[in-house]
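Friendly challenge for the regulars: who can give me the structure tokens for this chain first? No prize, just bragging rights.
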Amino acid sequence: MTDTDLHAKAMATFAALFDEAAAAGEPDRTAMTVATATLDARPSARIVLLKAFDARGFVFYSHLDGRKGRELQANPHAALLFHWPRVREGVQVRVEGAVESVADAEADAYFASRPRGSQLGAWASRQSETLDSRASFDERVARAELEFEGREVPRPPRWTGFRVKPERIEFWYGAQFRLHERHLYERDRAGVWQVRMLYP
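First reply, four minutes later:
Bragging rights claimed.
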């Protein structure tokens, strides 16, 4: 099996498990932990929703000026973690890789698909800045509503998508007595994909 085939197999495995998560009734299979870090290696993590995935990587959206946006601009690497306890005996998928911004056209298309309330919220939010009261935020939402009344809401210039381009994808399958099964797909420095099993 070539390294290209291994990459395709890893993504196909993710897609199959993603479908299993839906069939198993996971409350939100798109929920993932996104871990980022500052240049001086101070990590932070939060739950974000996966919005797209394909051979190029895994996509989520956010403000450039929030903490994760700032960290990804300074240190464009991230780790993702999916946890689906209802799939089989529990499944985790870990992804690590470099991060790039999606094309403007891709971000525009996704933003246009969002509910209008979410679009207005993106304009109203100064993500991660101090908020003196909920009323202040509600006022900003109301102002955005007036500003865009009767017309489409455009994507804010500081709101975009990030694509994590996988360099490591690990599939963790839970088993009784902690005899778990782990498969690691990894791209080496030459860009060649390899796969190996790991002890649990």
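The chain is about 30% helix and 35% strand. The helical segments are 3-23, 67-74, 104-113, 116-124, 134-147. Your move, everyone else.
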